[in-house]
Amino acid sequence: MDRQHISVRDVLKRIREDEIEFVDLKFVDLFGGLQHITFPAAALDEGSFARGVNFDGSSVRGFQAISESDLILKPDTNSTFRDPFFDDATISMFCDILDPNGYKPYSRDPRGVAERAERLLRSLGLADAASFGVEMEFYVFDDVRFEQSSRHGYYFIDSEATQQVGDRAPVRQHRPRAKNAYFAAPPRDPSHNLRGKISRMMDVVGLVPELHHHEVGSSGQNEIGFKYATLLNAADNSVKFKYVVKNTAHRYQKIATFMPKPLFGQAGSGMHTNVAVWRDSKNLFYDHEKYADLSELAVHFVGGLLRHAPAVCAFAAPTTNSYRRLVPGYEAPTILVYSQRNRSACIRVPFTGANANAKRIEFRSPDPSCNPYLALAAILLAGIDGIQNRIEPPPPVDENIYEFATSEHGRLLQATPTALSQSLDALEEDYKFLVQDGVFTEDLIDSWLRVKRDREIDYLGLRPHPTEFELYFDA
């Protein structure tokens, strides 16, 4: 599951042998937005990698105030990959972020949170590693336009299923029916060749593509699966995957988005997250004598994740748009139960037969607008709390949960938040499991809550919505 160790000398040797001209250092802001800075390869030596490079943290979302702006990027040479999206020969690598005051890990560095979560799992003696298989859905559009000002606000999307756009586009044939495009074959699947090109680019950057297909959304929704990895590597791979998808789509004059719910009436894009924990190469989630072949440890992991799910959603479903997707009746379940094979459950236990190594749970509430370092770490920490405190989940439900939720017993079940404000409130009340051994810091959580409330919830809530004109203009 882990990538091989790459030393600074290995990187410098590759620069010489492959005639690399530039080194691109990548990192994400607090909310998962990818940033980068590029250096001529000839300007770097072993000392450059050891010292890191300074940058202005006050210009990055969720980081520093201008009065204490300096931070340091420390390249992780193990994350080195050849970057196919630059004309000049370039290698890229992800960076950890350090505070120059003591040269210590920066409290709001998302990658540092993921690293500390992995260390906590090992230090507690619960397991050697946790594996994460991330399934990120996305839409590909032909044309997207949007704008918001004090006097107007609109969005316009043109996609494979568009019938007509004014006078400039003809009716398109071979389009899948609404919400009926899952596994559609060409010509009803016009994205096939693009997904193939994305898969080839994934291979170039070190991602292992496993499958690709059209998703349920008939207006250009797609999925490309890639190989699972340990937490930090899975988060790096998720950022890299979005980078590859967006840049490859751009190269072919398409626009890719990981927005959870870009289209009304079409399926939302999820990030179904598969988890297992391991010791000595043994999957600790497997026990063939128990329900769904889940071990007692796995059931307690599920118990912790379900108990803390509302708070976890603050990181795993972190946008106002996330809650356009998390609505009852779709494959984005809202009732906090688990079940074997049942896609209406918040946590599904995929059928894996006698293959012990494949046993896992699938948490279906997250979406790809998240910062994967924080979302995956929060999921692991919730599970760790469940194991430590032997938290029992509600009994599994092996029937249609949307119907069960309306029954006498179903009405007692807890649900995911229905709005970002609710998930932030849940996080504010239930965060102790996250700050164990300083994995998350209270400073990071406070910054997250403040920015989400001030710059997203309030920003949206203060502006009239186009639908309000339809409903109320003639009041």
What can you tell me about this protein's structure?
- With 475 residues, the chain is α+β, with helices and mostly antiparallel strands.
- The strands form 3 sheets. Strands 8, 11, 12, 13, 14, 15, 16, 17, 18 and 19 form a 10-stranded mixed β-sheet that branches. Strands 1, 2, 3, 4, 5, 6 and 7 form a 7-stranded mixed β-sheet that branches. The protein has a two-stranded antiparallel ribbon with strand order 9-10.
- Strand 1 and strand 2 form a beta hairpin.
Biggest sheet record: 10 strands, mixed
Mean pLDDT reading: 92
Overall 3D form? globular
CA radius of gyration: 23 Å
User: How many DSSP-defined strands?
Assistant: 19
The helicity comes to 25-40%
Poorly predicted spans: 163-167
Q: List the total number of helices.
A: 12
Assess the beta-strand content as a share of residues: 15-25%
Name the structural class: alpha+beta
Distance between the amino and carboxyl termini: 60 Å
